[in-house]
Specification:
single chain, alpha/beta, Rossmann fold, seven-stranded mixed beta sheet, 7 helices, 22% strand, binds S-adenosylmethionine
């Protein structure tokens, strides 16, 4: 029998809401980046949940969410509401694009009113996973009114991302905590706004 493609299998597991099998089967798969750059372990989702609870975060807005697979899994694993923003609506609507696992919020590259208003809610946490657009990152941060930022990305791995999990993201932000995802050299870094910066 022919082996199933990662895409087809993940879509089937998604239909069964079986996020555990998705991360366990595919975290090391050579084609995993077609759908998502990191496949956290169960304890990593728990790390996010506990910290979001401790920091009083209500929901996560993921910027540059791609297929939205990570965002869907975070929601399934933690019950935290998660939405995702992407650019280039025509690409995501075309038949060659990867499948999507959440409804994408399509933003314009120069931030539009709708996206800015999403960044203004004080209880929202913003997430950047393998984001790769420095000028856009700075624009999102300038308009962000919440107190928590999560950066997921590689550290000492020879893969370009911007922001990186441990770069200086501005003097008003302190690194609260971080965790490596398995032994992947991918890290979840959680930043909080300094108390005296508002
Ligand atoms: C390397 S991909 C990472 C996708 C996904 N987060 C993941 O981990 O698989 C970076 C994504 O950021 C998106 N992106 C780039 N500039 C953006 C912007 N200004 N606003 C929102 N998304 C943007 C790209 O379209 C791309 O899907």
């Amino acid at each position: 029998m022919q082996k199933k493609e990662i895409k087809e299998d993940v879509i089937e597991l998604y239909g069964q809401r079986d996020w555990r099998s998705i991360v366990n089967k595919y975290h090391n798969h050579p084609d995993r980046n077609k759908l998502l750059w990191v496949f956290p372990a169960e304890e990593d989702f728990e790390f996010i949940r506990l910290n979001m609870e401790k920091l009083g975060s209500g929901e996560i807005l993921s910027i540059g969410c791609g297929s939205g697979l990570l965002e869907w899994m975070i929601h399934e694993a933690t019950d935290i509401p998660v939405s995702g923003v992407e650019v280039d609506g025509s690409w995501w609507a075309c038949k060659y694009a990867p499948p999507t696992f959440i409804e994408l919020i399509i933003a314009s590259p120069a931030l539009d009113y709708n996206t800015i208003s999403l960044l203004k809610k004080p209880t929202t946490t913003i997430l950047f996973c393998y984001f790769n657009n420095g000028p856009a990152f700075r624009q999102y941060m300038e308009n962000f009114n919440g107190n928590v930022v999560i950066i997921i990305g590689p550290h000492s791995k020879n893969v370009y991302t911007c922001p990186e999990p441990f770069e200086d993201i501005g003097k008003e932000w302190d690194l609260h905590t971080s965790k490596e995802i398995r032994d992947s050299k991918d890290f979840i870094a959680i930043y909080v706004r300094c108390l005296d910066s508002k």
